[in-house]
Design brief:
By secondary structure, the chain is of the alpha/beta class. It contains four helices and eight strands, in the order E-E-H-H-E-E-E-E-H-E-H-E.
Length: 199
């Protein structure tokens, strides 16, 4: 519709991302490291309680056995999470909102949410594409650009993006598809930076 109304031209596409929070709290998001830390803590507490059993009277023994059982029940929960994480092939798992991921937000504060990738046409600054991306922008430039290329049916166009998208493999994928990328350089520059528009 936007093409039919001549509201987009498809010559230059700006690509950027924004983050939105999910309903999932940080406490209900788990990585392998976090699960391992919980399992290690439980094992240490169980060993500590078991060491106290020999020196305790009957009443304390009953209380310690109850604590041990509670910890072992909790351990089963983390073992199930561990299996679910490994089966998923992902680096993290969220319990409330399954698709939400831990993201690095302002001032390196981690939050649980979504990294939305968006593309806008330069002519009238209209949004022409969006999708939920990975936790960072590093591997998103080619994904967004190629989807826009298919959507617009264009053989060639330019993209504008910030330094978060500046990775050589992404520039290469775009160049191979006829897309010219203009991006803020990272400290290590790519041979595809500052390319001229393809004729």
């Amino acid at each position: 519709m936007l093409k039919d109304l001549d509201l987009i031209e498809g010559e230059t596409i700006a690509i950027d991302s924004f983050k939105i929070f999910a309903q999932n709290s940080i406490r209900k998001n788990f990585t392998q490291k976090k699960i391992d830390r919980h399992l290690d803590y439980i094992d240490k507490k169980v060993a500590e309680y078991e060491a106290q059993l020999d020196e305790s009277d009957a009443e304390d023994k009953a209380m310690l056995k109850e604590k041990i059982q509670l910890k072992l029940n909790r351990r089963k929960k983390y073992e199930e999470l561990n299996k679910a994480l490994k089966d998923s092939g992902e680096s993290q798992i969220s319990l409330t909102d399954k698709d939400a991921r831990a993201l690095m937000l302002t001032n390196n504060i981690s939050g649980i949410g979504f990294n939305i990738q968006a593309a806008a046409d330069a002519k009238n600054k209209l949004l022409i594409h969006s999708h939920i991306g990975g936790t960072t922008d590093k591997r998103e430039l080619a994904t967004v650009a190629l989807e826009v290329q298919e959507l617009l049916g264009k053989e060639t166009f330019n993209t504008l993006s910030d330094a978060g998208y500046s990775t050589g493999d992404q520039f290469s994928l775009c160049k191979d598809s006829g897309i010219c990328t203009y991006s803020s350089p990272m400290p290590s520059t790519s041979p595809y930076d500052n390319c001229l528009p393809i004729q």
